[in-house]
Amino acid sequence: MDRKAAEIGALEKENETQQDQEEQVVNPWEVSAKEGGKIDYDKLIDKFGCQRLDPSLIDRVERLTSRRAHIFLRRGVFFAHRDFNDILDAFERGEKFYLYTGRGPSSEALHLGHLIPFMFTQYLQEVFKVPLVIQLTDDEKFLWKNLTVEECRRLARENAKDIIACGFDIRRTFIFSDFDYVGGAFYRNMVEISKRVTCNQVVGIFGFIGEDHIGKYSFPPVQAAPSFPSSFPHLFSGKDNLRCLIPCAIDQDPYFRMTRDVAPRIGYHKPALIESLFFPALQGETGKMSASDPNSAIYVTDSEKDIKNKINKYAFSGGQDSIEKHRQLGANLEVDIPIKYLSFFLEDDAELEHTKKEYGAGRMLTGEVKQRLIEVLTKLVERHRRARAAVTDEMVDAFMAVRPLPNMFN
Amino acid sequence: MGFSKEQFLARLQELQIEFSQYEHPVVMTVEDQAKYVGNSEGGLSKNLFLKDKKNRFYIVSALADTKVDLKVLSQRLGLGKGGLRMAPEEALGEVLQVPLGSVTPFALVNDSARNVSLLLDQGFKGQEHCLFHPLSNDMTISLNVCELDKFLRSIGRDSSYVDLEANPPVGKDNPPDLAALVPSDSIVLPDLPEKAASLQAPPKAHVVSDNKSTDTTAKATEPSRKVKNVKDKPVNSVQPSSSFKDVGQFVEEILDKTSALLLSEITEESIKQHGQQLGVVVSNCIRERLASELKTDTTLYMQTAYTEGFHVARKMFQSTDTHHQFRCL
């Protein structure tokens, strides 16, 4: 598998140089589909060299955890992985692992797309009973955006509150901001990593150019370091063999391809990944939601009225132009955004199937589907807001304190 | 209790802050104040007590001549175009604990104002002396800006001097330049009258979720919680629910939700429909509908408890100069 990845890495370098506007672009800083189309996930899996999460793996998770699989697994939201099998094998043998995920705190406004990896990670933590580290890459935002250091650090703390509201177990979770935590053992790992990655490689993986400032070039090791348990001596001292599982959106894959390439050379397990699709924008599936366009997404601060308005006005419908035509031809489920959103968030499998069937046949109208979606999203956002309101600065301090987590595996 | 004028002046003297004081009849406007102290060498100040839509408060203290545009300030703080407005009268008493017409940076000496953000006109720096009310508008004190800074430091505050007349562009590539001055906590005022319509903060800060089945019963059994579920504008400035610290309250809420759901599920119809099986049906329904909400609530409860424990432990081992006051035996 690694040879394949390396091969593909090399191929990628070539592709990058001949890339015309025809190809879809997926990297940590840009996601866009081919001209007017949608993201081709099969091609992506192929190009990146990761693997599809097949139903047998989902069954295995259910058996190992004695719990129904999370909706994001059942509905194929988390659809790709690297070495997730190895994690499950080890778990079956009684070997634990830890979870690692993160966020780049670029804005105060979080939308549903941002919550997805956190909601899934919370489920993984709960069913596998494992510790979790959450990295807030405030330094990355400073390097890539026009923000001051203070602003980035402030945003990191604000975002931490929304993350905490997703219900992580404070007894097993360590949240840290790069500006506060980088140093010591973490930094030693960063330097070990940087010595094993060439400039040409980062240019090939991330598309950096000569005019980019050196901060960008030196950032990737920061996001790679948490994949290694020795980066957290206060948590995993003496456990160099501990495996790491990284839930993330698939655009983060390049960082971890690089990390997996380096891992064996510094004596650690390669981190495993479990990757999600992009949450489509309200206007349709041509890319991912943008924090700068408020109408492309549902925000966790949106009121019931906002949600209703946004869904009704902006959610791209696959329904037909007129009722007659709709009753005759049915809706185009491929492009219909409300159906897509429901598949992410409507828990009841039977109800979703029924809705798709009726809507696809033209017996249910767009209005009804949208109404149901509004209900579902409002409930979700309300619950998040309620939890968020209970998160105090003291709680953030506790989550972010460099402290031992006894019983983190129990 | 808030500081009285005398207590405050005594504090200034304790801190050895240099100032001059002028007594005069009560003045409600800067113009009136100018009549009595306008000829003394000093920049007269105008002080605005403002609030944003999320119940966060600000004091903007500026030279009387400085133009303050609330719309611009609102954008610079990242609150959008119409985010700032004058705070209601009640807030003056509750938060600043000063009478009407006495807004002053010195009100920050009161603990109730600890979450109020202070914006100072950078124009003050260019003045020999500046004139402010010492918590009461029947007196004006004159002091140099350095003395003001000294005072603010003594109450653990930074002095944030701002060019209040500046109007920088705010947009995607230009984040609001004053965003750091927005307080991190909102202040919930008890029994806010109908006037402040769009944002009603319930006294016990208990947010009833939009779960239709829990609404009626929850309100019936707890009349003291005046929850006004304002349609279309849910309260987004709610302080953490105290039920996450109080076992009794927490359990009450769980039982409220459960019994509300139970009662709503047992109707003539459902009895007819399920007969003897109704118990099983309702039991499953409760489990299904409440499981995730109760999980969220309990997680919050646990997080709150842990946080408290963490901070106590930190305090115990932080101060080395308490002669090992706290010890683990």
Automatic annotation (TrEMBL), chain A:
Q: A single GO CC term, please?
A: cytoplasm
GO-annotated molecular function: ATP binding; tryptophan-tRNA ligase activity
- Basic and acidic residues: which segments have biased composition? 1-16
A GO biological process this protein is involved in?
reproductive structure development
Sorted UniProt keywords = Aminoacyl-tRNA synthetase, ATP-binding, Cytoplasm, Ligase, Nucleotide-binding, Protein biosynthesis
UniProt-listed Pfam families: tRNA-synt_1b
Region entry Disordered, spans = 1-25
**First-tier enzyme category under EC:** ligase
Compartments, record wording: Cytoplasm
Task: Spell out the PROSITE patterns in the cross-references.
Answer: AA_TRNA_LIGASE_I (PS00178)
**The protein's Enzyme Commission number:** 6.1.1.2
What NCBIfam families has UniProt attached to this entry?
Answer: trpS (TIGR00233)
Q: Which family does it belong to?
A: Belongs to the class-I aminoacyl-tRNA synthetase family.
Q: Which PANTHER family match?
A: TRYPTOPHAN--TRNA LIGASE, CYTOPLASMIC (PTHR10055:SF1), TRYPTOPHANYL-TRNA SYNTHETASE (PTHR10055)
Q: What is this protein called?
A: Tryptophan--tRNA ligase, cytoplasmic
Which organism's genome codes for this protein? Castanea mollissima (Chinese chestnut)
